[in-house]
UniProtKB/TrEMBL annotation:
The keyword Kinase does not apply. It is a multi-pass membrane protein. Pfam families: 7tm_4. One of its GO terms (molecular function) is olfactory receptor activity. It is found in: Cell membrane. The keyword Kinase does not apply. This is G-protein coupled receptors family 1 profile domain-containing protein. GO terms for cellular component: plasma membrane. It comes from Seriola lalandi dorsalis. Residues 48-296 form the G-protein coupled receptors family 1 profile domain. Keywords: Cell membrane, Disulfide bond, G-protein coupled receptor, Glycoprotein, Membrane, Olfaction, Receptor, Sensory transduction, Transducer, Transmembrane, Transmembrane helix.
Length: 318
């Protein structure tokens, strides 16, 4: 009987483009408080990241490699969270949680691009900090505008190619189910809709994850080891303070993103904790995106001074 049922599942194909999202099981009294909390988080994310983007673009003194790279991070945060949060909020207050298959694929594509691009951009920012601290006299000749744009394009290009293959392998599968066992669409939730053999998806997904985390962790570890080594050899107080000021914010953001990403991947292997996995993935999107402008604004003197000057101009009586 089990063999017959399995064969039936494999042969059954669903042609409907409408999918149901499982979402969160939320008590009615917590529905609107959670909705308004996410709404506040989303608007604060928009305000802070757009504000920093406008400030960096309009202030010529901030047209430096570090701030151009930070613009990449803000743009990535805005895209990744705009694809996720509005629909998540709509599903929280709605009794019907439906999404088309194409919308689900787009959401999964942008979600994975957000994660991979975040890692790539932070690695490039670590390289920028390494050159600035370890080779200060050659910094302007190494980190030219052309180099920064080339590095940024590489980060986005590699992320888009890797994620395109990841999602492409899933889109080719037929579907025998129509319920997304998640609060959002991601690659794993999509290929779990199929009754076909998904070994290739699992192998490439593992390759994608190992490659991304190896390059990310390896790049960050190598640059920070070199920075720490230079600081230890030279024993220069000014150099050490500059390294701490510019690297602390970057390292904090990277560790937050790294561990929230690890938690999401690990929890996908434990189906008994579905709500915890959903929360971890949302935190992976939301927490770094809200902390990026705050931490960099507080740690980076030029950006902090510009923000203070603008606030003083706005608040001072005319």
């Amino acid at each position: 009987m089990e063999l017959c049922a399995t064969t039936l599942d494999v042969n059954m194909t669903i042609s409907s483009d409408i999918l149901e999202i499982q979402g969160f099981d939320i008590s009615p009294e917590f529905t609107y408080p959670l909705f308004f909390l996410l709404l506040f988080v989303y608007f604060s994310l928009l305000f802070s990241n757009i504000g920093v983007l406008v400030l960096i673009i309009t202030e010529k003194s901030l047209h430096q490699p570090m701030y151009i790279l930070f613009c990449n991070l803000s743009v990535n945060d805005l895209i990744g969270n705009t694809v996720l949060l509005p629909q998540l909020m709509a599903h929280i207050i709605s009794t019907e949680r439906f999404i088309t298959y194409n919308q689900c694929v787009i959401q999964a594509f942008h979600s994975h691009t957000f994660g991979s691009a975040s890692h790539m951009i932070l690695v490039i920012m670590a390289i920028d900090r390494y050159v600035a601290i370890c080779h200060p006299l050659r910094y302007s000749s190494i980190m030219t505008t052309k180099t920064v744009f080339w590095l940024s394009a590489t980060a986005w290009g590699v992320s888009l190619v890797l994620v395109s293959v990841l999602i492409g392998l899933t889109v080719r599968l037929s579907r025998c189910r129509s319920v997304i066992q998640n609060a959002y669409c991601d690659n794993a939730s999509l290929f779990k809709l199929s009754c076909e053999d998904v070994s290739i998806n699992n192998i490439y997904g593992l390759f994608f994850t190992v490659l991304l985390f190896s390059c990310s962790i390896g790049g960050i570890a190598a640059t920070y080891f070199r920075i720490a080594l230079i600081c230890w050899i030279k024993k220069n107080k000014e150099l050490n303070n500059r390294a701490l000021q510019t690297c602390a914010s970057h390292l904090v953001l990277y560790l937050i993103m790294l561990w929230s990403g690890f938690l999401t991947i690990i929890l996908h292997r434990f189906p008994n904790y579905p709500d915890l996995r959903k929360i971890a993935y949302i935190l992976f999107h939301v927490v770094p995106a809200n902390l990026n402008p705050i931490i960099y604004g507080m740690q980076t003197r030029s950006l902090r001074d510009k923000i203070i000057q603008i606030l003083q101009r706005k608040l001072s009586p005319t």
